[in-house]
Design goal:
By secondary structure, this protein is of the alpha/beta class. The chain has 2 domains: about 240 residues, Aldehyde Dehydrogenase, Chain A, domain 1 (3-Layer(aba) Sandwich), CATH 3.40.605.10; about 190 residues, 3-Layer(aba) Sandwich (Aldehyde Dehydrogenase, Chain A, domain 2), CATH 3.40.309. The strands form 6 sheets. Strands 9-8-7-10-11-20 form a 6-stranded mixed β-sheet, sandwiched between helices. β12, α9 and β13 form a beta-alpha-beta unit. α1 runs parallel beside α7, α3 packs across α4 and α4 packs parallel to α5. The longest helix has 21 residues. Bound molecules: NADPH dihydro-nicotinamide-adenine-dinucleotide phosphate (NDP) and the ligand CCCCCC/C=C/C(=O)O. InterPro entries: Ald_DH/histidinol_DH, Ald_DH_C, Ald_DH_CS_CYS, Ald_DH_CS_GLU, Ald_DH_N, Aldehyde_DH_dom.
Length: about 475
């Protein structure tokens, strides 16, 4: 397997089923495009419904043995996989950059996070414990956490390697087998990690990867009655369809959907720091992050100074191909470029010219300038709808009460951030704002260890942390009558 940075791909790629690689049953393929150049990178097989059914049958067959594998052995295997990912970090990062477009240093961070995820859940695999419940002297009552069985993972294209790890690691740790459908644009990272899993000894059939079209491969997967739990990250519209299909066969479902997260800056904050974090919050991954800080609420007394500084630093950001490690890479696809371009026009119609950015770059690739729209009202489309691009909307507020009301006036509730040096205000914000995670004085705070998921229309359930084990286990209660019957 090549490890040099010059040749990150180890072609050809196959559907990864039962520890083996194969072409699609009808030979169809997906073409993978480099978003920085609009040029094809490689092809992978596109799973048909029959292929997905085979993958699910395989996962079902492997399920009993994996459930019976001693937890400490599952733990060892996941930790070995983490080590293998770390050893291959540079090549995997180059693959993430190639298929997704993100800057190389950001791709390296995401590969490290993926490795950390397998370590973290490897560490937890042998600590999934029940409880004993006191009843009375004649009864012994206890709970056991058992695996659900076959888990299905619908993974998006924005952070493909990390988001693959985010749900697969706790699922395998919990004793489930997995079938993963990566996004059409970015299947390579998942296929590469499946090979690493095989190389460290993960039993055949425990992890299966079926790249393909959402409407065919994805729908067949989540609709399969043999699937016991579905985890989905992506758009709200698709998430709702996936949930309906899953509930038809009464499987568990976890949804991590969109956001329009408020980033609230009070006058007592360090402006310098808050501007930096605002830029990180909206322009990382070219704004293609569910937890992007896309709605900046800034106090009226610091508004002008803040926006001037934001403009100055945004203008200085470099935009270019991810392999050159710029500040901002291309969007993932022509489709995403079109969506974001339409929102730039919506923004112009709603508030006029942006204070910075607002253009797509000429030439090959899907590049959009980092953009800031000022003078936005909270009920405008650019303040309510998830753009999923490098586009920030700036809204003024007059006092704390108004800031909290504006923060909460959104259909979403994924994360919310506050910049203030006033501890009481930070805690009031955390108490009063409806979001699954609150950031204080740092955007993208927390990590693999901290529960992550949405209030309101941002989703159902929590990823990350010890809590994610609950997503992939079911609770059994055992109650014994131990009264003497002599
Ligand atoms: N919360 C997040 O992190 C993400 C949010 N989004 C949001 O979604 C918007 C559109 O992006 P898009 O890629 O179309 O997102 P989707 O939500 O449509 O796709 C996410 C995943 O779901 C799959 N999928 C699509 N339809 C089905 C289905 N019927 N059954 C099962 N799986 C399905 C997709 O496959 P396929 O690739 O074949 O379509 C992909 O793997 C973005 O602009 C952004 O706003 C997108 C990605 C991540
Ligand atoms: C800068 C990237 C941080 C990624 C954090 C996890 C993202 C999740 C998502 O978009 O669904």
């Amino acid at each position: 397997m090549p490890t040099s940075s010059e040749k990150p791909l180890d072609e050809p790629y196959g559907l990864f089923i039962d520890g083996d690689e194969r072409v699609a049953s009808n030979d169809q393929t997906l073409e993978i495009i480099d978003p920085a150049t609009d040029e094809p990178i490689t092809t992978v097989p596109a799973a048909t419904s029959d292929d997905v059914a085979t993958a699910v049958e395989t996962a079902r067959r492997a399920s009993d043995e994996w459930q019976d594998t001693r937890p400490k052995e599952r733990s060892r295997l996941l930790c070995r996989l983490a080590a293998a990912i770390r050893e291959d970090e540079e090549r995997l990062a180059r693959i993430e950059t190639l298929e997704n477009g993100k800057p190389l240093s950001a791709a390296r961070t995401q590969v490290q996070r993926a490795a950390r995820h397998f370590e973290y859940y490897g560490g937890l695999a042998d600590k999934i414990q029940g409880e004993s419940i006191p009843l009375d002297g004649d009864h012994v009552d206890y709970t056991i956490r058992e695996p659900l069985g076959v888990s299905a993972h619908i993974v998006p294209w924005n952070v493909p390697i990390y988001l693959f790890a985010r749900s697969v690691a706790p699922a395998l740790a919990g004793g489930n087998t997995a079938v993963v459908k990566p996004a059409e644009e970015t299947p390579l990272g998942a296929l590469e990690i499946a090979r690493l899993a095989d190389s460290v000894g993960l039993p055949e059939g425990v992890l299966n990867i079926v790249p393909g079209d959402g409407l065919e491969a994805g729908d067949t997967l989540v609709g399969s009655p043999e699937v016991d739990v579905v985890t989905f990250t992506g758009s709200e519209a698709t998430g709702v369809e996936v949930a309906k299909r899953t509930v038809e066969h009464v499987a568990d479902i976890h949804l991590e959907l969109g956001g329009k997260s408020p980033n609230v800056v009070f006058p007592d904050a360090s402006i310098d720091h808050a501007v930096d974090e605002t830029i990180t919050g909206i322009f990382s991954n070219a704004g293609q992050v569910c937890s992007a800080g896309s709605r900046l609420l800034v106090h009226e007394t610091i508004h002008d100074e803040f926006v001037d500084e934001l403009k100055r630093r945004t203008e200085a950001l470099t935009v270019g191909p991810g392999v050159d490690d710029p500040d901002v890479g291309p969007l993932v696809s022509e489709q995403q470029l079109q969506t974001v371009t339409e929102y730039l026009e919506v923004g112009r119609a709603e508030v006029g010219e942006p204070v910075v950015g607002g253009e797509t770059l000429d030439g090959a690739g899907y590049f959009v300038e980092p953009t800031v729209f000022d003078g936005v009202e909270n009920d405008m489309r650019i303040a309510r709808e998830e753009i999923f691009g490098p586009v920030l909307t700036v809204i003024e507020f007059a006092d704390e009460q108004e800031a909290i009301e504006l923060a909460n006036e959104s259909p979403y509730g994924l994360v919310a951030g506050v910049f203030t040096e006033n501890v009481g205000r930070a805690h009031r914000f955390a108490r009063d704002v409806d979001a699954g995670q609150i950031y204080v004085n740092e955007w993208f705070a927390g990590g693999n260890e901290t529960p992550f998921g949405g209030f309101k229309r941002s989703g159902i359930g929590r990823e990350n942390g010890v809590q994610a084990i609950d997503n992939y286990t079911q609770l059994k209660n055992v109650c014994l009558n131990i009264a003497s019957r002599d």
